Amino acid sequence: MIGIEKSFPGVRALDGVSLEIRAGEVLALVGENGAGKSTLMKILAGAYIADGGTIEVDGAPVTIDGPKAAERLGIGMIYQEFNLVPDLGVIENIVLGIEPVRGWFLDRGAAAARAAAVLGELNIALPLDRPARRLSVAQQQLTEIAKALVRHARVIVMDEPTAALTDRETDALFALIATLKAQGVAFVYISHRLEELPRIADRITVIRDGKAIETRPIAEMPQADMVRLMVGRPLDAHFPDLPAVPGDAPVRLEVRELAGVQNVNGVSFSVRAGEIVGLAGLVGAGRTEIVRAIAGADAIASGEIVVDGSVVRVRGSRSAIDAGIAFITEDRKAQGLVLGMNVRENTTLAHLDAYSRGPFIDRAAELTVTNAEIAELRIRTPSSEQIVRNLSGGNQQKVVLAKWMTGDARVFLFDEPTRGVDVGAKAEIYALMLQLLARGAAIVMVSSELPEVLGMAHRILVVRGGRIVAEFARAEATPDKVIAAAAGVAA
Amino acid sequence: MNRGIVRAAIAVVAFVVLIVVVNLLTGGNFFTPGNLTNVLRQITYNAILAVGQTFVIITAGIDLSVGSLIELTGVVMAQFANASGLNGAVLVIATTLVGVAVGACAGLVNALPVVRLNLPPFITTLAMMLMARGLAFHLSNGRPVPLNSDAFDALGTQYALHDLLAPLGLPGIPWAVTVMVAVVVVFAIVLNRTRFGRYVLALGGNEEAARLAGVNVGLVKTFVYVISGGCAGLAGMLLMARFQSGSPNTGIGSELQSIAAVVVGGTSLMGGRGSVVATFFGALLIGVLNNVMNLIGIDSYTQDIVLGGVILLAVMAEAIRKRVFTG
Lengths: 491, 327
Fold this sequence. Notes:
By secondary structure, chain A is α/β, with parallel strands linked by helices. Chain A has 17 helices and 24 strands. Chain B has a single domain, classed as ABC transporter involved in vitamin B12 uptake, BtuC (Orthogonal Bundle).
């Protein structure tokens, strides 16, 4: 892959990446969240089309304009969330799309033989007739590998293959990769588990900000170098100055031994009035789950949530809202907004009883508050009656904020508050957070952008495996320390 | 030019053309006070069902049980009226309450599996459609239950404002029509002016966003099916009053007619958008079509073909309009 470029609206995801994958090797690909690893691999697999650059296979330039083209070229992609059809059996999944037929009918015998041949060659035992949904994660992964091999894959891309495997399953996977390597199959291995790379990889490429920063043999790349290269940039200076938290500021939010249904395993922390606490961690670490549990979006298994000294029984979003907790979700389109409704209707949705007389909505009161928010947040919209689907991403995000500014919330949970918004809107959102602090609010901010966590939080809590594994005051936090704690390696 | 003005102009022109064409086709028989009154009376049942159906469809649901519920509530009401020993207006009101309550309970049964177990409403209301019809046949032994009292005559056959309109040569407004208008007005206000209506639209547009904004989506959904069932009870009441009996097989196909009225009115089956008044006009359009075809003497098989085609055209026109205006 040479000089690959790819842009999404507002984001330059890949900025001329070049990558070389050799037969019979494992190339590790590492980088921060959003560095561009997945985008690059999706281009290789035909899920995205590159804006620029060329791809050569065996020295000949090729065009990959879809998954089928990638498959023909012998490129197999194994996503972190597998692509198996849950109700089809192992055999059917392996031959999916290339089913052997006899006349108009499926040739089940030939399909079984083909699957058995691939699995036998690798010495893998799988329950061939079991539907994919009832396979273990490791078994699903093996099915994916077999699926790639039946299609004569010569390059197999694996995204976080060991994220959900036990140690023993990981050993078995590595043994299998070694076997295939010996047969000349090349692997691209994406992982956040830096400590496992020396065991499996031959070379390593670090991706950062859409560029391939450095490629070395794995033996010449100690973990400390990996972390340094992954972070490797000065902090962006466009964050506003955070006012210090007054020494006598009361504790607004306290979370005690919170455990959720999934991926929240005994979390305790507190946030004071006028303070921003940043939750850092890798994708899947449990940051979003923690704030969702506090906001009542997911059920809580055990633990206590205390707002202003009184224990809140959070059961569902309503109880959290009534307790003064506002939750600005990560995905504004799926969770934050009713896109088909207008600015006014979205702004008042969470506190509609405040703009009603009896069961009836008071349109005038709605208009007053909405127009005030439009002015205060500088939402660029023709009017309060504009459908929010037609607004830009940054302005949509401001409508989400408007919804939570209208109530009397004192605790604000921001999940990826600036994802997908332009620089100008970003600065406005930061300014708004400062305003909230001045009003005495407590803020918890989840962000995958390390500079944002370092620049916009008084304290940083690092989350891994649904637990808080490290805490840094703003002054002592460095990118290396946070990344190392998030990845679970010694800095 | 303003889009709203363009659309209004198109609507006016289409309406004028329609009037001219209809008048020519029917030789002037359509635009007589008697016939227009007749059309309104004929659409009452479907319009009332469709109002309830509108709420369900805005939440991206569907209620297939309303046709059967007309029958079940009709039979139950007729039996109640005959056994109650009440008379006059008290009897009518008590019977109506019984019918609406039975329909609302059925709606509750429809809603619970949808809300609690996340089952598709298509299935739960299909089950209710079968059960309610079976129960109606069971209770009535498969025969219409004639009403003993004549207290329902007023609703079934008589006119409001008769004395006022008689000098103008008009028969007055059928009582059933006044009930329909009241239902349309009340539920238009509920949908457009109340918190509940806003929540219905919000959860239809984005259920997760509504939930995270503190909307009790389970409760709102439940009420939507209860409203639909209650509307079916009311429609069952009017039908029973019209035929002076509660019959176990008068509602077959009504659920599809009501869905057609909602869709022709422009409400999206994907949820999130919809209007009670538009639904009323959808029911009116279907009623006018049926009436005109009857006046022209088109046989009922052909009528079905035309009606199906018109529904398809209406939905396609709406889809194309949306593409043109948002593209």
